[in-house]
């Protein structure tokens, strides 16, 4: 007797009912780039459809997202001033503090996540304190902890340290608990690779290093066992979520971490992945709707529970049509 698996694929209805994985609005986290001022909406040339926005426009963006079912957002601040110690990341009245309060006042139920890294706030563009031309890991922890506490006090639900400093999860958890911010969760960028896929983001966040690169603190793309080591450390230090960044070229890492850990796993579908598909779609080389659906499904299939993606709005709008 011939086995006929095709019987489960003979109609669209049967295919829908037998799908092993789906992507829903509540699987998606939408990134937002916040700038100061009013009525500002700045095009990011390398990321079609994505803008840096002042808080009034951020509120309109969130309103549109909520209408689509998106209720989770990760905020990136793009400050007016920078210095060697990233003081605008944690000073009173910083851009994320103001944005968080405004968002929570209008949308109290949304899930607000703040990226905790100082590369956008330092004049040298690195993710921590530079000392004699090198990152000082432990001095950097103090800045990250200050930033996390500032964000949490302003209403951020989850802090997401992305600097890849050793001990950053413990430093943030301790600082938050000391301030009685025990309900603020920590989303660890536990496996963040030294990747070429971040280029468009660095335009968006104005965060490119002025000299050198980040290879001494971000992970080597050649390594997979290291992702287990890094994630084990972060979970032991109190991470509530773990993450793989980028996602598209690291689905083997998503799968490994999904097998090894029983806490929510986030895939970050990064700027370069977004921009490549947008460029190819603009040329007519790919069907954007179909390829994005396939890509997001692949992250879920690999084991991701949640996906940070610039495609969130496009995907849900196209799903309605």
UniProtKB/TrEMBL annotation:
Q: Which reaction does it catalyse?
A: 2 5-aminolevulinate = porphobilinogen + 2 H2O + H(+)
**CDD domains annotated for this entry?**
ALAD_PBGS
InterPro entries, per this entry?
A: ALAD, ALAD_AS, Aldolase_TIM
What is its pathway?
Porphyrin-containing compound metabolism; protoporphyrin-IX biosynthesis; coproporphyrinogen-III from 5-aminolevulinate: step 1/4
> What is this enzyme's EC?
4.2.1.24
Q: Where does 5-aminolevulinate 2 bind?
A: 271, 310
In this chain, Zn(2+) is annotated as bound at 117, 119, 127
Is Chaperone there in the keyword field?
no
Q: Which UniProt keywords apply?
A: Heme biosynthesis, Lyase, Magnesium, Metal-binding, Porphyrin biosynthesis, Zinc
Give the residues the record marks as binding Mg(2+).
230
Protein name as catalogued: Delta-aminolevulinic acid dehydratase
């Amino acid at each position: 007797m011939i086995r006929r698996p095709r019987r489960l694929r003979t109609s669209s209805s049967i295919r829908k009912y037998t799908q092993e994985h789906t992507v829903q609005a509540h699987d998606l986290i939408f990134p937002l780039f916040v700038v100061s001022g009013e009525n500002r909406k700045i095009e990011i040339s390398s990321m079609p459809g994505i803008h840096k926005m002042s808080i009034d426009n951020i509120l309109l963006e969130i309103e549109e997202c909520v209408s689509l079912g998106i209720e989770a957002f990760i905020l990136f601040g793009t400050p007016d001033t920078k210095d060697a110690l990233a003081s605008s990341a944690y000073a009173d009245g910083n851009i994320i503090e103001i944005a968080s309060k405004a968002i929570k006042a209008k949308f109290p139920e949304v899930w607000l996540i703040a990226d905790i890294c100082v590369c956008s706030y330092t004049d040298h563009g690195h993710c921590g304190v530079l000392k004699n031309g090198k990152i000082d890991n432990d001095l950097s922890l103090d800045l990250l902890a200050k930033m996390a506490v500032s964000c949490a006090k302003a209403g951020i639900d989850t802090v997401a340290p992305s600097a890849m400093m050793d001990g950053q999860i413990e430093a943030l958890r301790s600082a938050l608990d000391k301030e009685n911010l025990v309900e603020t969760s920590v989303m660890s960028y536990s496996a963040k690779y030294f990747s070429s896929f971040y280029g468009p983001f660095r335009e968006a966040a104005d965060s490119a290093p002025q000299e050198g690169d980040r290879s001494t603190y971000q992970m080597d793309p050649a390594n997979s066992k290291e992702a287990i080591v890094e994630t084990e450390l972060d979970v032991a230090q109190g991470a509530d979520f773990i993450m793989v960044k980028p996602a598209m070229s690291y689905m083997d890492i998503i799968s490994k971490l999904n097998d090894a850990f029983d806490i929510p796993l986030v895939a970050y579908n990064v700027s370069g992945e977004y921009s490549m598909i947008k460029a190819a779609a603009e040329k007519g080389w790919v069907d954007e709707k179909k390829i994005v659906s396939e890509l997001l499904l692949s992250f879920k299939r690999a084991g991701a529970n949640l996906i940070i993606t610039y495609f969130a709005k496009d995907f849900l709008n196209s799903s309605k049509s």
